[in-house]
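Researcher: Batch entry, complex prediction.
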Amino acid sequence: MRGFRYGFLLANLILRDFKIRYRNMSLGIFWSLLNPLVLMGVLTFIFTRIFPNPCHRHFGVFVLCGLVPFNFFALAWVSGTTSLFNNATLIKRVRFPREVLPVAVVLANGIHFLIQIGLLIGFVLATGYGVNRQWLWLPFVLGLEVVFVCGLSLASSALDVFFRDVRYVVESANTVLFWLVPIFYSFAIIPEQYRTIYQFNPVAAVVLACRLILLEGRRPPFSLLWKLAFVSLLALGLGLAVFARSKRKFADHL
Amino acid sequence: MAAIEFRNVSKIYHRHPSRPFFHRYLLEKWRRAPKERFYALRDVSFRLERGEAVGVVGANGAGKSTLLSLIAGLSFPDQGEVRVEGRTAGLLELGSGFHPDLTGRENLTVYAALLGLDARQLRERFERMVEFAGIGEFLDEPLRTYSSGMVLRLAFSVAIHVEADIMLFDEVLAVGDQAFQAACFEKIFELRRRGATFVCVSHAPEILKRLCERALWLEGGQVVRDGPTGQVLEAYQSFLAVKAAD
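Model: Structure tokens for the complex:
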């Protein structure tokens, strides 16, 4: 596998994924925007009209700060998990570094993530929040989320080859996380005794950091940043380790 | 210098490799029930020098594809040792990874990247690949508008222009019309003159005779015969004739 060009292959796989998804769709890239907008509208309606929720003055943009990082996390993780299985013929027939498959899928989702971040920033500015220098922390925080999902997907895609149940575990975990990540409620209303658990959930940490940066103009506390960095890098390391241990058996089990 | 060397190689498959979680772990591991296994290859040894071309014959399930995937480094032996010197390019089930909604050009690029080319190498070979495939004005059309022959020609053209040290063919030479086949043979002979090694699985004796000076006959995962193509094929065919008469 020496001298194999990861970069060119990775770029092409990301591009392939992106093109396949949008070719032959009349709305094309707007699907990336439509989904969070619809969810934002529904959640705003429910939590301002049906269960009035005093979490934030601008509930729409508040929810969007949670939805965008969570959407990326959930979609990228699910599609990363099935990436090996979906490319079974390729794995059985062509020799190339297998790691690129889940990573490419996660990064292709990262393109949609970027588009949605653009949407989020548009809303933030339209609501009247200004640009501040804490925004420089955004690439760091969101980048760590991508690293975290890459790690999770490497591990879960490898396990999915041997136990096809894994994808359903991932789907269920995402459903549960939608409630356990502070998307439509704020970190502040979580009772004290549960907060430590929340702090070790990287998705919750990313959501919290986004709100601090975009809505309050504050730098996320260093304790949050290092925990996020630690958990993300740990996930990547473990993911690579699980993957490396099992990849020799992929072709026999698919 | 040996390009490929197999030393007492066995490949074992278990009967139910993806059984549900509970069966697999609770029953097999805790009770230590013996797994049902079968040998896809059993104690296979041979040595291929650089520049040799060898044909592999045998009935379905004889272990031919397993042999190729071990050489290609796609799967690994359970016993024994496989040594391969140089880069392999498998032409196994051509066009794995092609997508019908992408154009010929896009599919070509992704496939070349999968086979290990970088941007510069692809740029150098792009013209030759397109010309060899003979898809002309269809290059920027989506793949679903191609005939199956065109798809195979495109895939074959990319794979052969990777110009790996060791080329593996699995029933792919029956591709395309006569003119394209002739061009393929010409290209293969050119690569052979440059020292490429070929392993070719085929049921077509005339192709093997033209391409390979040596043949392996596999039966039930074992090498029954290894020698000059003509002799091995003769033995294989008389074996088939006897079996058909039974």
